[in-house]
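In response to reviewer comment 3 from the previous cycle, which asked for concrete evidence that the modeling workflow produces usable outputs, we include below a single protein chain processed end to end. The sequence was submitted unchanged, and the resulting structure tokens are shown without manual editing.
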Amino acid sequence: MVIDGDDFYLDLLFFHRRLRRLVAIELKLGRFKAAHKGQMELYLKWLDKHERQPGEEAPIGLILCAESSREQVELLQMHKDGITVAEYWTELPPKAELEQRLHQALLEARETMARRGVLLEGDGDE
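The workflow returned the following structure tokens.
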């Protein structure tokens, strides 16, 4: 992307057929920083203006970091801008830790859905 004469390079760009939108992905080696949101917003606005086709939804972004920063992500309200932050692993943790993390993620997802008033089928099943 060239913006004001400066070159910008998006790490990955996909088109999701069912969502009918572009999905921009940025890969970060370190911990999430608030500045990453601004970079992704710039990319998404550019994609929306220059690449979005008629009938497509607005582009969304995913920032993959070695370590997330939950409070920063929450305060920045990134979900409102169509941006999600996720952590990547360079190796799998021990099985017990992985099971615990997955269980915790499931509980958090259920709490989020409950706050939004969305009911999940089989809620309460483990």
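The chain has a mean pLDDT of 89. We consider this sufficient to address the reviewer's concern, and the full set will be provided in the supplementary archive.
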